Amino acid sequence: MVLGVWLIASWMLFMIVVGIAFFVWGWRSGQFRDVEASKRTMLEDREPEPWPRRAAGRRTAGGGGTT
After folding, report:
1. Of 40 and 63, the one with more pLDDT
2. What is the pLDDT of residue 49?
3. Which tens digit of pLDDT belongs to each residue from 7-56?
4. What is the pTM of this model?
5. Over the Cα atoms of the chain, what is R_g?
6. Are 65 and 58 in contact (CB under 8 A)?
């Protein structure tokens, strides 16, 4: 019984420390600056960039590609 309480308490403490570490990482890397920018860029009306072309002579994963 006592071991179970220690395991749960240590797991909770570990998860709190991980959560704080992720929050500090996000804050320092600028994840919380200008949170509205993603909405604006999503609604921009511009053509998407084309997919990169495969090198000539390579087959596709399915085996039905051209050589």
Report:
1. 40
2. 77
3. 999 999 999 999 999 999 999 998 888 888 877 777 777 777 788 887 66
4. 0.53
5. 24
6. yes
Q: State how far the Cα of 19 lies from the Cα of 12, in Å rounded to an integer.
A: 10
What's the distance, Cα to Cα, between the start and end of the chain in Å? 66
Amino acid at position 63, single letter = G
CA dihedral 53, 59, 60, 62 (to 10 degrees): 170
CA distance 64 to 34: 46
Domain extent listing, the chain: 2-31
Residue appearing with tokens 């051209």: 66
Residue type (1 letter), 57:
G
Q: Give dist(CA 3, CA 15) in Å, integer.
A: 18
Instruction: Retrieve residue 49's tokens.
Output: 């960039």
The answer to whether residues 12 and 18 touch, using CB atoms and an 8 Å cutoff, is no
